[in-house]
Design goal:
single chain; 306 residues; mainly alpha; two-stranded antiparallel ribbon; 12 helices; 71% helix; transmembrane helix; ABC transporter permease; transmembrane; ABC_transp_permease; cell membrane
Length: 306
């Protein structure tokens, strides 16, 4: 494979987990809840998926384990930030630290001889996968990736501002008090949005462990969850720009592997830093050019009614 197709192929594969996680995070932020704990949800999902697969030999069981574990982490985040009204940023960081510690310890318990697991093989879509340059990258993925991307597309349509549920979610994220007065179930919607983030993040973690690497390693996400949050901001809280931001970050991550083939001679440490440097640049630029939901990170407290 030549340099450019290799870069595109690697960029798409690295962008898929980002896109899955960011699609759930987008819904949550539109409802007014910031989940920095996406990193912890993905990490827990990857670990549970690897353990479930290693214990049963069935990657489908691993996916179920990944989804359950990530949703449980999301439920903890929702309990803290939506029900108990704790600071969303602080709780997100705390959940990530807890997930990193538990999965690192758990890996030493469950993977005493090796951390390789069976996973999902790639599926090439007939005809489409033969398109020059982009065909293998876009249309030769694992079945899990195709399912996840289909779900992400459905979420983008379901929660768009052109649907009733999308309008309701937007109203809750902009002004939760007014939405509550209008009869919208603010807390239920926010709690459900966080759980949805956990579901999609668990799918992203399973994609990492069972489709991309076929193994579990300590801190396997390596900041991917944070990049998913940044992608939502860079995408100005809209689905398709968020997807483009995920692709951009995926290409940036792939550069560290494709740079030697491209003849680019730069320190490897700089290439590792590149996605996060670009993320900072993207946030600083797009944050000024766009407006976040007015109720983002603002706890909802119901007003007393006469």
């Amino acid at each position: 494979m030549s340099a450019v197709p290799e870069l595109i192929d690697g960029g798409v594969r690295l962008a898929v987990p980002l896109l899955l996680a960011s699609s759930g995070e987008l819904v949550s932020e539109r409802a007014g809840v910031l989940n920095l704990s996406v990193e912890g949800m993905m990490l827990t999902g990857a670990f549970a998926g690897a353990v479930g697969t290693a214990q049963t030999g069935d990657p489908l069981v691993g996916v179920v384990c990944a989804l359950v574990a990530a949703v449980l982490v999301a439920a903890l985040q929702a309990l803290l930030s939506v029900t108990l009204l704790a600071d969303q940023i602080v709780t997100g960081i705390a959940v990530n630290a807890l997930a990193l510690g538990l999965t690192t310890y758990g890996a030493r318990l469950f993977f005493t001889t090796g951390r390789d697991v069976t996973g999902f093989d790639e599926i090439a879509l007939p005809g489409l996968s033969r398109i020059p340059v982009v065909g293998p990258a876009l249309f030769e993925q694992s079945g899990l990736a195709f399912v996840g991307l289909a779900l992400a597309g459905c979420l983008a349509l379901l929660f768009s501002r052109r649907t009733g549920i999308g309008l309701a979610l937007t109203a809750i994220g902009e002004d939760a008090v007014s939405a509550d007065r209008a009869g919208l179930p603010v807390r239920t919607a926010r709690f459900g949005a966080v759980l949805l983030t956990g579901f999609m993040s668990g799918l992203a973690g399973a994609q990492l462990a069972l489709a991309d690497i076929h193994a579990f390693t300590d801190n396997i996400t390596a900041g991917t969850g944070y990049l998913a949050v940044v992608a939502v901001i860079a995408g100005q809280w809209r689905p398709w720009p968020t997807a483009l931001a995920c692709g951009f970050f995926g290409i940036a991550q792939a550069l560290q592997f494709a740079a030697p083939t491209l003849g680019v001679e730069v320190p490897s440490s700089l290439l590792i830093m590149l996605p996060y440097l670009l993320a900072l640049a993207a946030v600083s630029g797009f944050a000024r050019a766009s407006r976040s939901p007015s109720g983002l990170t603002v706890p909802f407290v119901r007003e007393a009614r006469a």
